[in-house]
Here is the input.
Amino acid sequence: MKHIGIIGGTFDPIHNGHLLIANEVLGALNLDEVWFMPNHIPPHKENKHLTNSIHRAKMIALAIDDHPSFVLQPIELERDGLSYTYDTIKLLVEENTDTAFYFIIGGDMVEYLPKWHKIDELTKMITFVGVNRPGYSRKSRYNVTEVDIPQFDISSSMLRERLSKKGSTKYLLPENVRHYIEENHLYGEK
Here is the structure.
């Protein structure tokens, strides 16, 4: 049986914090791979304005290019409408009968679990893995495997703001992603 971690999100843009989380969980749980799964339209985000999915997928591919156990999983980008984790996991479980899935979330999403679409059914299909995030608890009435990771307080929204103001993102983004953002004039880069 394969053991696959999934880290989902908008990845708008992907950053070193995402990569750190994936690598730490990969090692801590002895997973075979970690799939980066960008969502099409996240149901829990108020601001639905996202960078084009082609750009977001390309940035992920660039960021994970040098890690043999990291994979871009575009399944949610290939579907229309809201990206509910339940619907996606149901498809993945049906297509990968020999795989145990571990869905990696931060403390903010652990607290949000009671509001997830079909959460009770979802918990029967996957194992949730909660990583620590400053200011949030990983305690939940749902079964969540906890993995401690080094604290790296960074967010995509903070990076978008920095990029729009021409602030430094060195050591926050992979260099090839930073160059891609500059070359494609994303987030106010000229």
